[in-house]
Write a structure and sequence with these properties.
This protein has 153 residues and is an alpha+beta fold. The chain has two domains: 34 residues; 104 residues, Immunoglobulin-like, CATH 2.60.40. It is 29% helix and 24% strand. It has a seven-stranded antiparallel beta sheet. The longest helix has 32 residues. The chain is elongated.
């Protein structure tokens, strides 16, 4: 091959590589535009109590205030995903329901769900977003959340 044709092949290869990178960047931009990440987790600061209902349990249990604050702090740090929550309840079969009871008139509560998926703890806020919860220091996960006994109240 002559030096002229080798030079043309190199130029063509560089142009093709640049065009391929531009196409990949455009596809990524389009996907992020169509499926944006969920907004940051925002729980009410002013609440009266936090109740928990394990999957299959008959009754809700009240979480002690200091543990409720710790739980909400960890959940506020959850990483948003591009997945959307499009119904009132998760698709997962087993989940824990958390309800924050607020003194506000409307709606008076804020509900969200936690479940495990592919060894990740998932936070799902209906119609808002799905988040991955990281708790490397095991501040809340890996230990039993203290709750009151509803029969003693």
């Amino acid at each position: 091959m002559s030096s002229q044709s080798q030079k043309q092949v190199k130029i063509f290869s560089v142009i093709a590589a640049v065009l391929a990178l531009l196409c990949i960047a455009a596809i990524i931009w389009i996907l992020h535009s169509l499926f944006p990440k969920a907004p940051p987790v925002d729980f009410p600061e002013n609440y009266e109590q936090l109740t928990v209902r394990q999957y299959g349990a008959e009754e809700e249990r009240i979480v002690y205030p200091e543990d409720a604050d710790l739980l909400l702090d960890v959940l506020r740090e959850a990483e948003p995903t591009n997945r959307q929550s499009i119904q009132d309840f998760p698709f997962e079969q087993e989940y824990t329901t958390f309800t924050i009871h607020t003194p506000d008139e409307e709606p008076g509560y804020y509900r969200f769900y936690l479940y495990e998926e592919d060894e990740n703890m998932i936070l799902e806020i209906p119609y808002c977003g799905i988040y991955i919860v990281r708790d490397p220091e095991h501040r809340i996960f890996g230990r039993e959340m203290p709750v009151t006994d509803p029969e003693k109240e």
